[in-house]
Hints:
Layout: H1 3-11, E1 38-39, E2 47-48, E3 57-60, H2 61-66, H3 72-76, E4 82-84, E5 98-100, E6 108-112, E7 115-116, E8 137-142, H4 146-149, E9 156-161, E10 169-180, E11 183-193, E12 197-208, E13 211-212, E14 220-222, E15 224-238, E16 242-261, E17 269-291, E18 294-313, E19 319-339, E20 342-365, E21 368-394, E22 399-410, E23 414-428, E24 431-442, H5 446-450, E25 452-455, E26 460-463, E27 471-485, E28 488-505, E29 511-513, E30 516-540, E31 544-557, E32 570-580, E33 584-593, E34 596-599, E35 602-604, E36 607-616, E37 622-629, E38 651-660
Amino acid sequence: MRPAATALSLLLATSGAQRGARGEDARAGEPDTAGVTVVVTGTRTPESAQRSAVKTDVVGRDEIERRGAADVAEALATQPGVQVNPGAYGHLGYVGAIQVQGFDRDRVLILEDGEPVIGDIGGAIDLSAISTADVERIEIVTGPTSALYGSRAIGGVVNILTAPPRLLGPSARARVEGRSPLGLSLQGSAAYRGESAWAGADASFTQGDAVTLAPGVPDTRIPATSRSAIGARAGATLAGRIDVRARARWVRDRLDGVLSRPDPLRGRYLLDEPARTDRLALHLLETIDLGGGSSLRLTLGRQWVDNATAAIQRGSRIGARHARRARMQSAEVVAALADGPRTWVLGARAEAGSFEQTSTETESLSTGVVMRPATEVAPQTLGSAALYGQLQWKLGPTLTVLPGVRAEADVRSGQAIVPRLAASFRPFEALQLRASVGRGFRAPTAKELGFVFDHSAYGYRVLGNEDLAPETSWGVNADVTYRPSAEATLRAGAFMNWVDNLIDLDVARGSSSGATVDYRYENFGEARTFGAQASGSVRLGERVSGQVAYDYLWTRNDVIDAPLGGRPPHVVTASLRAILPWEVEACLRAQVASDAFVDADTRSPAHETVDLRIAREVWSGSQAYVGVRNLLDSHQEPGVVGDLRPPLGRVVYAGLRADWPLEEEE
């Protein structure tokens, strides 16, 4: 396989939704008594997911619990329409990154409460490092959404949302869970909600054992993990019209891997590969109710991320260490103006950030131990400013149109104008048709602009390129939803994307400088993706419900005229929830993925996963549960190149969850 093809297939294919115009209800994202689910990500205004002009999938807190998820990667692992497969990023470790419409890494935007998450690993945001301790729901919008969210939203947007406490007065939640082979998971939260103010805090801790490649082999395919998170949130209503919210979150993520390498003189020796990431995020949101359904929202954000990785010979100081430092601050103002059948959304956003990466090589020479510091990415300052607008116009009781446009200027890569047009047609209550067309773009990252990976001793260097232009795309999405009754839903949809100016290492045209060849990031890739989905769900009373979905994906890397690597073309997902005798809740989820193209000589095997969770109330407000993830133990074959199945096999877990107080929600 050509190296360029490998890099492009691995690289291909991630901004800030705000809270609802009036601050969405604490139970948004879960169906209310009328079966209505309120979402905000697709249009930046709160509306029913069932009637939204932009298709938005929701995984609410109750469903997160049913899936036995301790982190966001587990919550989305069997979600129809997306792929969360850490096996596709084995060269980076156990990274729970997401694929949407054939795109991944920097081409799917990950948000927390509407603010972009920074601190990627090789371009991928690790969803397994985001705890579900305070997550109220996860909203997923597929297709180009750069008109609302700017750079990186080519494949879609995943918005991880929190919410105020559901209950008046004090409340608390705790969860303790043991896993085999991945150790212990603890989550806890406490909150107080008064008539006009509320506050809450949460903490989580996960410790996992290392998973080795094979018995007797010290190398790990999944490193030992230790993840801690502490969060605090607060809000208040001032003068009846002003809602203020603040959120702070600190996360520490540590991984300890082991790798062995052969040496002709010493035989095989071990490398310890520790990695540590610290992330601190602060968000402040003020919403002013202007009356008549109109509002003004002001948001400030600040993030700090420090990451350190190493590969050190065990028992010595010899090896390499890398340090990365990322910062971002943002400010945004959004006005939602209701004018009868029309709702205007007008916004302005500014971002400024920085990134730098250094390395230190420690070698043993005849003169002693020598340390060689180097700058891999010189300090890069990134910044952008954007103006955007959207009109949601209800043209009668059956038709809604949603035109929008964004103009964004980036200090490094110039200007971009990205439009979007969406429409929803509801000829009668049970049938809804939606379609959208939009432009997406992605500005070059700091690494792509300024990377200097100097391996002259091995005959090559990898260099950034300050002249890179943004990647651009066009995407078309359409779906139809039919609800013959309140208990059944049928849906079918399709999409297609065209992407130009893809950024990748141009290893086919390296330039020689003496005995060293320089490879640079260039705009030379082109790709297309096409897909379709058909799904159905049914609820039989209050005790049985189920869903089945089939996803088809076709991709093409136009540089080498081959599919994009690591993307199974056929995926079937099914779920079943039943309340059994003695009020035992059983939740079964299954997913079957076809084999996938890796390169001209390799296909990753087909695989299937089955998850089962059984739970029962112990006392009011509590639940004991047992479960198994990946029941059939489908996993990678150690040492087999191109096997993109999940690195982790069967996991058995058991735990107890308790909520307090026990009275009914308000």
